[in-house]
Design brief:
single chain, 461 residues, alpha/beta, ArsA/GET3_ATPase-like, ATPase_ArsA/GET3, P-loop_NTPase, ArsA-related P-loop ATPase
């Protein structure tokens, strides 16, 4: 894709007034990224609710149908990925997705991170049978593996490292966790690695060695860093659980730090590409800008920005102000409401002329019979019809809807321009907003087409 110059939306400008140009924005060539055999990992990141899961799935479908063997790792608890890919459920094992078409198509697999199961797999892989069983049944370990802050992000990194080490797929696409901040995914390895290093072991072993009230006082101070769930377990039984856990895990703590460092370096490698996903809203693009800066500081390779759910109009030349002015003019005309149905013929004096064939005519045989029969009940009066909406009223309503859409388009354009001014070097592709949710492979293919062509909506810059 070639770089193009984009022009700001012209909200509040009249015809003939040029909108202010914005800097050239390099276009993100998604197909070139997916076809590059040197790219082995694509990480989709961004704040919550911007479409990371859908983007990751659409990239996976497109890459597989272009010949690559792909696995998509999602950490999305809503399980939308499984539904859209026609799989009943996803778990910690990659499942092959049926329906990948096209000549020379590759394979697509998908999986959902099971945080606790991944932690269990680490224990089972690095401890003998008896020790592994003691760890897995330990109450302290169960609390740590299921609820410690940062565990989900860390286990996502662990699973990424496992998939890459298997060398079974030539492209891994990662949908990062729905964290409070997009930066948690990068911070998790260092944070949890530091938590589980030698200093942590010494902290936990100290109260056991000291014993008595002094030991418990020290334990209360030392464990203040831990979550509320673990804090509720303080007491003699908890102390014994900690001792058992530390004794069983003693030989494994160094491995956590080593693997965390290795995965972090994997993310910095040239074979990894980060895609920041955002919507054209202020908060989402502010988070995206912060993440772009963080990736640069950590020397991690950024491929570009996916701008999702972009709005546009096929009649963008009609500004919001002109549309509203036209609607007001139509309202001021004051068209008299017209009665629906056929207008009757009238005599010169204005009275209606009816035909004998008209059932309502006094000359009608049916009408005469009703009049002469005293027992005949007169026909009930028909209910009045709903007031018809005039063409002018309908047009005025459509003009107001168009004005609202153009105001949204202009606001999104200003937000994009602010991001571009801060990071003109970041390649961008835009995905037009869809009228509904994506729920099958056809929908994912449509998203993939938009990602690849950078299709902004009609009328957008």
């Amino acid at each position: 894709m070639t770089a193009s110059t984009k022009t700001g939306a012209a909200e509040g400008t009249d015809a003939g007034t040029a909108a202010a140009p914005v800097p050239d924005v390099p276009a993100l060539d998604v197909d070139a990224l997916l076809d590059d055999q040197d790219i082995r990992i694509v990480v989709c990141c961004g704040s919550g609710g911007v479409g990371k899961t859908t983007t990751a799935a659409a990239l996976g479908v497109r890459a597989a149908e272009r010949g690559r063997k792909v696995v998509v790792l999602t950490i999305d608890p809503a399980r939308r990925l499984a539904q859209s890919m026609g799989i009943d459920s996803l778990d910690n094992i990659p499942r092959r997705v049926p329906g990948i078409d096209g000549e020379g198509a590759g394979e697509l697999h998908a999986m959902m991170l099971d945080m606790k199961r991944t932690f269990d797999e680490i224990v089972e892989a690095h401890a003998d049978g008896d020790r592994a069983r003691a760890i897995l049944e330990n109450p302290f370990y169960k609390s740590l593996s299921a609820g410690f802050a940062g565990t989900q992000e860390y286990m996502a990194m662990e699973k990424l490292g496992q998939l890459r080490a298997r060398n079974e797929w030539d492209l891994i696409i990662v949908d990062t966790p729905p964290s409070r901040s997009a930066l948690d995914f990068l911070d998790a390895p260092k944070r949890l690695g530091s938590f589980l290093d030698g200093k942590f072991i010494k902290l936990l072993m100290a109260p056991a060695k000291m014993g008595g009230r002094a030991g418990m006082k020290f334990l209360n101070v030392g464990m203040s860093m831990m979550t509320g769930t673990l804090g509720k377990l303080l007491g003699g039984q908890f102390l014994r659980d900690v001792q058992t856990f530390v004794a069983a895990m003693d030989t494994m703590f160094g491995g956590f730090r080593t693997r965390a460092d290795a995965t972090y370096k994997l993310l910095q490698a040239p074979g990894t590409a980060f895609l920041v996903v955002a919507t054209p809203e202020r908060d989402a693009l502010r988070e995206a800008a912060y993440f772009v800066e963080r990736l640069a500081a950590e020397e991690m390779p950024l491929a570009g920005l996916v701008l999702n759910r972009v709005h546009g109009s096929g009649a963008a030349r009609l500004s919001a102000e002109r549309a509203l002015a036209a609607a007001e003019n139509l309202d001021d005309i004051g068209i008299v409401d017209q009665t629906a149905g056929k207008a009757g013929l009238r005599d010169p004096d204005g009275s209606a002329v009816t035909s004998p064939e008209d059932p309502e005519s006094p000359l009608s045989p049916a009408r005469s019979a009703q009049t002469e029969d005293p027992e005949h009940e007169p026909a009930s009066e028909p209910e009045p019809e709903a007031e018809a909406v005039s063409v002018e009223q309908l047009t005025a309503g459509l003009l107001r809807l168009h004005a609202e859409r153009m105001q949204v388009v202009a606001r999104e354009q200003r937000t994009r321009d602010r991001f571009t001014a801060l990071h003109p070097e970041v390649a961008v592709t835009e995905v037009a907003a869809l009228p509904g949710d994506v729920h099958d492979l056809a929908g994912l293919r449509a998203i993939g087409d938009r990602l690849a062509t950078g299709s902004a909506p009609a009328g957008a810059a």
